[in-house]
Amino acid sequence: MENTTSPAGGGSPAVAARGLSRLLTPDTRITVGAWLLCMTGIVALINPSDVPASAFFRLTLAGAGFALYAWGRTDKQREQAMQVGVSGTQFLNGLSGWLILLAAMLFVTLLGAVIQAVSDVPHIVRGNVWAEYTTPGRAAYHPLWATLLVLDWGSNLFAVVWIPVLLSLFFQRKKSFPTVMFWTLLLFTALVAVRFGVADRISFVRGDGVAMALFLAVLKAVVWIPYLQRSKRVKATFVN
């Protein structure tokens, strides 16, 4: 007689996958993603340290939150599109999916640049920071401080001015956006790398969050440049 009994544990990966799929519904992913983003803000308020371990933990929370939110929202929109008979090309044509995460990154970067600019402007106007660090004979003087301060203030001003331009191209779905964003990512990575090289020669700031900034800049470039070049959604959305 043929043995019809399934082997012990047979099919368990497929069963587990289906169970996980039912558990992680689009609404669940959106909710958990939003909760993780809220937790990121709470952690930043409780522990605003620039220590690399703390910064990496906050980055992980924010990244997981954005990823789950974008994943859930995309699947939810796909389900809604299928219900009304929208084609695959029409579904991909829109500021959704991982583009939500890209827009969020631009907004967060702009917010950080504006906050930093508001903090820096009084020091620039009064000139006390510049005099303290670039005047020979002062306790904090180093010949590379002038270069580092110009890089810091200049790159921050560039972000404040340029990111709104990027967001304008993004929301107008301009065909030039992927190319402009590509070169912007490369430029910002190069600026952070130069800043890292200069800061590493100043013992006072060596390791003071500079390596983490370089890591984040490289990570952004590694993640977003291939996405902008290969994504079907990008090609279907930025056509104006």
Coarse shape: elongated
Going by helix content, strand content and strand pairing, the class is: mainly alpha
Distance between the termini: 68 Å
How many distinct beta strands?
0
Run of helices and strands: HHHHHHHHHH
How many separate domains? Answer: 2
**Roughly how much helix do the residues carry, as a percent range?**
over 70%
Helical region count?
10
Low-confidence stretches: none
Strand content: under 5%
Characterize the largest beta sheet: strand count, sense, and whether it forms a barrel: none
Quaternary structure state of the chains depicted: single chain
Radius of gyration: 23 Å
Mean pLDDT rating: 75
Write the layout of secondary structure elements.
Elements: H1 12-23, H2 26-46, H3 52-83, H4 88-92, H5 98-126, H6 128-134, H7 145-171, H8 177-199, H9 210-230, H10 232-237
Helix pairs in contact: 2-3, 3-5, 5-7, 7-8, 8-9
Question: Describe it for me?
Answer:
With 240 residues, the chain is mainly α. The protein is built from 10 helices and no strands. Helix 2 runs antiparallel to helix 3.
